[in-house]
Give the backbone structure.
Amino acid sequence: MDKILTLGRIAEIVGGELRGDAAVEIRSVAPLASAGPGDLTWAVDRQHAARLSECQASAVLVGSGLENGHLSAVVCARPDLGISDVLEYLMPPLPHPPVGVDPTALIADGVTLGEESAIGPRVLLQRDVAIGRRTKIHAGVVIAAETQIGEDCIIWPNVVIRERCRIGNRVAIHPNTTIGADGFGYNFDETHFRKIPHIGTVRIEDDVEIGANSCVDRGKCSETVIGRGTKIDNLVQIGHNVRIGENCCIAAHVGIAGSTELGDLVTLAGKVGVKDNIRIGNRVQVAACSCIAGDVEDGQIVLGIPAKPKSEFFREHLAARRLPKALDDIRDLIKRMKRLEAANNQETS
Amino acid sequence: MDKILTLGRIAEIVGGELRGDAAVEIRSVAPLASAGPGDLTWAVDRQHAARLSECQASAVLVGSGLENGHLSAVVCARPDLGISDVLEYLMPPLPHPPVGVDPTALIADGVTLGEESAIGPRVLLQRDVAIGRRTKIHAGVVIAAETQIGEDCIIWPNVVIRERCRIGNRVAIHPNTTIGADGFGYNFDETHFRKIPHIGTVRIEDDVEIGANSCVDRGKCSETVIGRGTKIDNLVQIGHNVRIGENCCIAAHVGIAGSTELGDLVTLAGKVGVKDNIRIGNRVQVAACSCIAGDVEDGQIVLGIPAKPKSEFFREHLAARRLPKALDDIRDLIKRMKRLEAANNQETS
Amino acid sequence: MDKILTLGRIAEIVGGELRGDAAVEIRSVAPLASAGPGDLTWAVDRQHAARLSECQASAVLVGSGLENGHLSAVVCARPDLGISDVLEYLMPPLPHPPVGVDPTALIADGVTLGEESAIGPRVLLQRDVAIGRRTKIHAGVVIAAETQIGEDCIIWPNVVIRERCRIGNRVAIHPNTTIGADGFGYNFDETHFRKIPHIGTVRIEDDVEIGANSCVDRGKCSETVIGRGTKIDNLVQIGHNVRIGENCCIAAHVGIAGSTELGDLVTLAGKVGVKDNIRIGNRVQVAACSCIAGDVEDGQIVLGIPAKPKSEFFREHLAARRLPKALDDIRDLIKRMKRLEAANNQETS
């Protein structure tokens, strides 16, 4: 971190209002709990703001009405977005290959390279691959025949993309991820599994980001689709023929089995498993470590194994915690019942 | 998809009986719900077949007795296998490296290459590696010393296979997978973990397929074994000394801990976790997201965390759903009990 | 396995006491159940030792007081450590690149290479990377600008390490693992996700081992930290800003979400998920397939989804198994209650 910003400059960057000393120097950004001199911190709510008086930061980015006199501040509508703006300014340059083709890259016949694209060392582009303008392909990436990649993409090192895939603009794919491997499909033929050929492909729309060491399998006879703006974390499995909508958020270790569809704005927290051939509606939210075994309607918040609506889950979950006591109650009731029955029998006899 | 098949040719390919126009042209294959003109679809049961009348496909592959008059059809015993046959014909050529050794591949002393094998760009074959006939090794693959790979295998890009492993014939290993890394074994030595050397290896038998970004660890002092015909999906972890039988089917994100044994024809659905040092019998089936904590006998269907037999799981699962109501019942019983007891006491007093 | 050790030599290696024939030849090591002639086996407790009489091994390494007359033996305090010593002697050489720089490696300006370091084929070291003495960088590894790696490390093939990371001494990172990719962080900006720049890094301390196909994300504005001596298995996800203490043990498929802290000596079994922004205390142990949703105090043993203390988990788990019977009891109580109430009403009427 060699760059330095003054607080005055930060007010300009985030389009905020300066409260305090414009000359304060900011070298980095840090959360409230660990910020020290030279750091800019941020506070998005009253709870955060209450802790500012103990904070050692040099300045704070706060929402309107949250500033206190303790620290020099910049007030802005969305401190979370403002911090991202500041981080962008502080960020050292990314280690992209320079524009042009590294002499160790292998470029087959029919490849087209957009203006200002950057093809790193030891990249392999097979025949008829197309790379868009300003796209960066890092070292060791393998892109198979006829795959097309749009503009302003970043394909990080050692990613493998199989043949005939379509990747949009401003897509980032992190290291060691595999796009377009065969789906996991077999017919059982009396004594053994017989592979189903996968002639389909993968389509990744604009503004998608896919983490490291993830897998998106190609379709059996059509496309596996990742919709525009969707963000996928590390170590995620997307099965063949899956169709994911726009602006979904899919955390690490999620697995989505074949031919399932997700709507738009779906959030799957870490380690969620989703059954094959089902439909998850728009704006559905699924808690971590859940397993979805059937269709989920628009807007539902679900959790559990198998996943159920939040209210139902918590009713059953709380009930389960009261179960040991309930079993004692039952034992007690049986005893008292016997006593009463005995007393009644005596009376009536 | 540039290939075109006539329906008459498809009847020959699948060994089926033509019902309708032999000249119908088929360009691709699609499931009932999305098939359109130029597509061949398929129907394997009465439920499927009932939806054929609304289907826009140009023709259908159906089981005997399921054809209706609506679409030109080919009747065959196993439409699912027939579709695979057709997909094989329609499949564009795979992007394999050409036969021979790419000039950028590094081939150490003592390596033997079978006839018609294909060694792609930037492959590293360390000393004494043996590659069988017609086997294809894709770009960026690293195979360490003394490993042997059989005939007709496909090792996709950027796979890493460590030293002294044995891989059979017709094995496919998808991109970015790691075979033969050290097992996760340490002795705790008072204040720290001390690594246990792993001098064992991995043996992968004929006709195994392993997905992308998966890991098969080497044995501690013997072999980790993947039995003949077993199919493994993406992002799967197979621990050291694990022994998997024949024709098993292991879905994405499954993890099998060290020294566990699986019989033949075992099915583990996605995200199943299996404890170390246990035995899973033949033909066992495990539902997605289950965790197996002990031995499972032949033929069992198990699920849950920890996994239990299906009937037991569902009995407890249904009971759990009735628990909130049961707690109300108990509260009510206690109230009524008190009332009765009070009444009885009054009488007897 | 071409090396042969005599039992006498083994007694020297492990610092143990010979009981039997010093000339017995040992070719390999095997557990009790599968050991045969030429093998050394081991027994760490009475249960193990009881099975020695049926064992076909040529000799046994046993704890004091456990030897029986059946097999030639070496007695030592910790047979588990002794076996590791023997495995180290039997281990064939690892397939490391030779000392020096492979002619196909790409070494940018400002890179420093320690004495006796070994840089394998097709490695890419970007500008200002520093590699310590005797460290081995295997084929296909990509290390981005300004990253520093200590002494005696092993970076296995196709690992990717992003810019500005700090890696200590005696660290091993297995194939296809990704260190320092961007954390999964976005701000939702009305209609879409906006990427949060990740200007932080990763710090991996001395004696850490990280398995194959795992991911350690870089911090947002500070470091993601893996503490000294911690061991991480395959396919593990460590989120941005996570801080893991010393000598932790983290099994396959574990995922730890952003900004969470682990103390020292924490054990996470396979497939454990850990929520973001929480604190796991020292010496905490978590059972396989658990999901930790809140802070855990020092020394706790927890399990379940969500994880709870062991005693609480088992009380609820056992209660759940008794629930179907309890529901029958309730039905029965209700019936009997009605009967009693009817009888009482008759009396009082």
